[in-house]
Design brief:
The chain is an alpha+beta fold. It is about 40% helix and about 15% strand. It is built from 17 helices and 17 strands. Strands 1, 2, 6, 7, 8, 11, 12, 13, 14 and 15 form a 10-stranded mixed beta sheet that branches. Helix 2 crosses helix 5, helix 4 packs antiparallel against helix 5 and helix 15 runs antiparallel to helix 16. It starts with a helix and ends with a helix. The N terminus is likely disordered.
């Protein structure tokens, strides 16, 4: 039994997890998990939520984008960022939520080194959005607040001095617009929770509301988890905070479900508390008792005016709705219906608005031609993206293949597809042509991730320059075909005697004689005609 548990639970410490692993393997889980998510996402705006400091998540120098307002100096007055408010309203409309007409901001009082004012400006009673749903999960509310500063603990050195017991605070993030979305407690498994978080990340990217990069902390998930014997009763919940990857979200929820179930089976009770996640041990750990709303002593911020959104020009539902782009789930359905994409293909395009927009631009001239559209899907996903991942992108610090997809202009890529579809370039020639364009563009790039001068001419002229245009004119191919027939009399005799497969050898010889420039279909047709 000991070996069985160790194997199933990945060799974890038996003394600390034996009961959980026993429950996982021996006991059928008789409890119904209930999960609610709180997801924080930084918004992409030019300035912070209540001041004019730059909102730049990529700033490498600490405490650069700061001012007396976001540092919490006494006597300073916050000013609302209307662009951030509009982005939350866009999210709300996209998920079918109810937009508030009246709203206000509140002070959420608690002390921590990354909150220099001693309170966070948030929304309590009057959120911007109420209700809605996303991916089949009902939403309770969406509100807007300011992010905290960023604390760094357990430093190994500080400018050459030992500082193992110190924590450093970077206020570049302090005051950044932070959207918080709260779901209703209607999720019952970790997989659904992860799917919801991924769909929200996609939505934020499609709307241009934010990148929601979890590795950078631009989107953070907190999961409230409880288990109970029946769906009519909710158990005591625990909150697991600051989960910074989808894999971590799934693992933490699954662990908590098993931990709480094991406690109840053992006759113990679940303590309402806030827990963290240990990536190394792959387990949650207690941080503090769970606060309730009254612990924060919310009250309306007297320095921020109340808002009547209907009085702000352009903030009504109809105006904002008209400005929304095609939403990810709409695009997903369209791609599958109109272009017969496989699940795998559509997932790549939908998960990257950049690649999807590039695809749409490429096929604009022939979107009703199924053959050319299918060629475009295949060459973008298999050949082009593969090349971009391999070619060093000089002067493009931190650039990914996705970022660099514009190195070949969409119209030029469409011309390449036209050449392939018309038989002017072979599949091998198309790969060589793409390689030439990507290599040249990367070498000449100024770091803009756009096509260089080498990609500004026509695809045909570049293919002709490099000898990649196929020969389809019979007058160009017949001399080579006649020589192949003359030089391979034995194979010709075998073919005429009924060995049909011999034709492939003759086609190969003809392609070799034309140095690969012959159109294989034309070569085959001419060979068959000559052989009678």
């Amino acid at each position: 039994m000991r070996d069985m548990i160790t194997g199933r639970c990945g060799g974890i410490a038996l003394l600390t997890k034996l009961k959980i692993c026993y429950h996982l393997i021996i006991m059928k889980n008789k409890y119904l998990p209930t999960i609610g998510l709180e997801i924080h996402a930084e918004l992409r705006t030019a300035s912070k939520m209540f001041c004019s400091c730059r909102n730049d998540p990529d700033e490498e120098h600490p405490n650069t984008n700061v001012c007396p307002i976001c540092l919490g100096h006494p006597g300073t007055l916050p000013v609302l960022n209307l662009a951030a408010i509009k982005k939350v309203l866009e999210v709300g409309i996209a998920v079918g939520g109810e937009l508030a007409d009246f709203t206000e901001w509140d002070r959420k009082n608690y002390y921590y080194p990354d909150i220099p004012k001693g309170y966070q400006i948030s929304q309590f009673k009057y959120p911007l959005i109420s209700g809605g749903s996303l991916g089949g999960v009902e939403i309770e509310r969406i509100h807007l607040e300011e992010d905290t500063a960023q604390s760094t603990h357990d430093m190994t050195s500080c400018a050459g001095l030992p500082c193992a017991d110190l924590s450093l605070v970077n206020f570049n993030r302090s005051g950044v617009p932070l959207m918080e979305l709260v779901t209703k407690p209607v999720i019952h498994d970790a997989e659904t929770a992860v799917r919801f978080a991924k769909e929200l990340q996609l939505l934020l990217r499609y709307l241009g509301a934010g990148e929601a990069n979890m590795e950078k902390g631009e989107m953070r998930v907190e999961a409230n988890i409880s288990v109970a014997l029946t769906a009519q009763t909710l158990g005591t919940k625990t909150e697991v905070k600051n989960l910074n990857s989808f894999k971590t979200v799934e693992k933490a929820i699954a662990y908590e479900i098993e931990r709480q179930s094991a406690l109840l089976d053992d006759g113990q009770s679940v303590k309402q508390e806030t827990r963290g996640w240990d990536d190394v041990a792959e387990e949650t750990y207690s941080q503090r008792s769970k606060e309730s709303s009254h612990d924060y002593r919310y009250f309306p911020d007297p320095d921020i005016p109340k808002l009547k959104l209907s009085l702000i020009d352009g903030f009504d539902r109809d105006t904002i709705s008209q400005s929304l782009p095609e939403l990810p789930w709409v695009k997903r359905d369209r791609y599958m219906k109109d272009y017969s994409m496989t699940d795998k293909e559509v997932a790549v395009f939908i998960e990257s608005p950049t690649i999807a927009n590039y695809f749409d631009a490429v096929i604009a001239a022939y979107e009703k031609d199924p053959k050319k559209v299918k060629l475009t899907i295949n060459y973008i996903l298999s050949e082009y993206m593969g090349l971009l991942k391999k070619i060093p992108l000089r002067n493009m610090k931190g650039a990914t293949a996705e970022d660099a997809i514009g190195m070949i202009e969409a119209s030029l890529f469409g011309e390449i597809i036209e050449l392939i579809a018309n038989g002017d370039v072979s599949s091998r020639g198309a790969k060589d042509l793409l390689n030439i364009l990507v290599t040249t563009s990367a070498a000449e790039s100024d770091g803009s991730l756009k096509g260089s001068n080498a990609t500004s001419t026509s695809a045909r002229s570049i293919a002709e320059k490099h000898g990649l245009i196929q020969k389809s004119d019979a007058s160009d191919l017949i001399p080579a075909i006649e020589k192949v027939i003359s030089d391979n009399a034995k194979v010709v005799a075998e073919y005429k005697a009924g060995k049909v497969a011999s034709i492939q050898f003759l086609i190969g010889q003809a392609m070799k004689a034309t140095k690969g420039a012959g159109n294989p279909e034309v070569v085959k047709r001419l060979l068959l005609e000559k052989l009678g």
